[in-house]
Amino acid sequence: MNLENLTILQARNLLDNKQITVRTLVDHYRRVISEKNHEINAYIEIFTNTDAEIDRAQKMIDKGEQKTLTGIPYALKDNILYKDHQVTSASKILEGYVASYDSHVIECLKEEGAIPIGRTNMDEFAMGSSTEYSAYGPTKNPLDASCVPGGSSGGPAAAVAMDSCVFALASDTAGSIRQPASFCGIVGLCPTYGAVSRSGLISLGSSLDCIGPLTKTTEDAQIIYNIINAYDYMDSTSVPLEKRNMQSRAFHKPKKIGIPREFVNDPGISSDMKASFDRAVSIFIDAGYEIVDIEIPHIALSLPVYYIILPAEASSNLARFDGVRYGIREKGEDLLETYIKTRGEGFGKEVRRRIILGTYVLSAGYRDSYYGQATRLRSLIREEFINAFKKVDVIITPTTSGGAFRFGEKSDPVAMYISDLFTVPANIAGIPAISVSFGKTKDGMPLGMQIIASHFNEDALFVLGKVLEDNK
Amino acid sequence: MITRQDVDNLCVLARIGISDAERDELTSDLEKILEYVEQVKSVTMPAEGDMNISKHISQDENILTKNVTRDDTDAYPFKKYTDVIMNALPDKSDGYARVQRVLGVGE
CA of B44 to nearest chain A CA: how many angstroms apart? Predict the structure, then answer.
C-alpha cells in the first residue's frame, strides 16, 4: 500500500474502505519519524500513549460513525496544550511542564477522533523566523538540510513536508505559519483573529496570535479550518458566530484581485520570487480574474508597528514565568535574585532581547511615543485594509522575499525581523491569509504566494488557493 | 540613544539577569531595533478619537464592556484542578508554593 503524501480525503478513503487500519497509519508515520527525525529534528516528543485514541477512532470507523478527521494523525506545535502531555514552547524555562487542560483546538480534534502523533519544534515562545532559537536545537528544512525550515513553526512545517503526518496545527503571530509553509513547499493558513479560540495556546502577543493549520493542500487547510473555526467562551476575543455573518459579506465568488504594487516592488525581493509572482498574476488573469492595483498607504509600517506591539505584549505575557508556579527555578540569595536568575537562565537570548525591548517601549516617558503611536497606526492600517476590500475581493503578495535561507545567514536581529515583511500586515489588521506553494528558486527550493482576504472571508482564500494549485 | 546603564535598569525592571558580554551586545541590538521602529514616529496621528486603540481587531464593538456574570462561574467542581496545578510547582510544602522569605529581607 502506498501511503506517501496522503491528503486528508485520501487517508479518509483508505480508512473507510478498510484498506488500512488507524494503527497501520499511525505506525507508518512513526516509522517515518524514526527514519528522518534524527536529521531534521522536527519533533521534540513522539506520543506513544495514544492507544485509547487509536482504538476509539477505529471503533468509530467500524461502526460507520466516523467524522472527517477520525483516525487521521497530526502533529502539534509545542505551544498548544494537550492535557497530561508536556508542553514547553521550546523553552528551558518550561522544562517538564505538563498541560493541565486541553486547548480548545485539541477539544475540536478529539471530538473528531483525530490522532495526535507528536509535538514539534519551534522558535522559543514563537519568537523567530527560522526555528534556530529553540532550546531543543534547530529544525532543518526537509528539502535541503543546509537551509532553515522557517519559523516560528519550523517543526510543524517540517513534520508535514517530510510526510510524517497528514497535517499539523500551529500558531501565527506575524507569519509563523505562512513563512515556514512557503519555505517547506506546503500550505499554511492564518485565520481571521477571533475565528479560532486561543484558549490553551501559550500566549506570545495576545492581540495578534492565531491558531491555524499546516497542510499539503488548500483543500486540507479548508477542512481543518472548518473544524477549528468555532466560538469559544473561554477566549474573550473569540467572535460569536452571528457577529461574523454580519461582518463578513455574504460569500460570493471572488472576481477582483488587488495588488499593493508599491509594497510588492520592495527592493529586497529576489528575482526568482518576482518571476513567480508575475506568473501567478498571469494565471489569475487567464482564469478570468480582474487585477487591480491598490494602495494601502501605510502597509510598509506594519513591521515596525509589530516590533513595538509584540514585544510590549510578550513582556507582559511572559511575566508569569518566574520560577514559582511552573517550570524550572534557579535559586538565588533572595526571592528577587531567584526571579532574575530563573528568567536570565530559563529564557533564551531572543526571548530576553524581546522582553527587554517590550519593557523599554512600555516604560514611563516612552509609552505614548512608541506603544501609543503603534496602536494608533495599527488602527489606521486596519482601516486602510477595510477600505481596500471595498474595491477588491482579495489581495495577493509573495509570502516571503525569497526561498529558505541558510543557517546563520540572518544573525542580525533586524535582518531576521524583515523576513516577516509580507506576512505581518494580515496580523496587524486581524485579517485571514494563506500561503500556497507556487514556483521555485533557481536552487529548486519552494516559494509561496500569499492571498489575503477581509475579516472572516477565508472561503475566498480557498477558492484562489486552488486556482494556483491547479496551475502549478 | 541607549546606554549600558539603561540596559541594566531594564533588566532589573524585567527581572532578567544577563552577563556583561551580553549587556554590550544587547545595547547595540536595542539601538538597531529602536532605530528601525522609529519610523512609526514619522506619521502624524491624532492622539485621541477613533484611532485610539481598544477596538477588537476583527470586530467593531468591544465585547468586554458588558458587566454581567458569566454563566460558567461554577463550571469547575471544587478542587478539580488543585492537584495538577500543585504538581507543576517547582517547590512546594503542605499544599503551598514555597518561596524565599520576602518580608524582613535586608533588615
Answer: 9
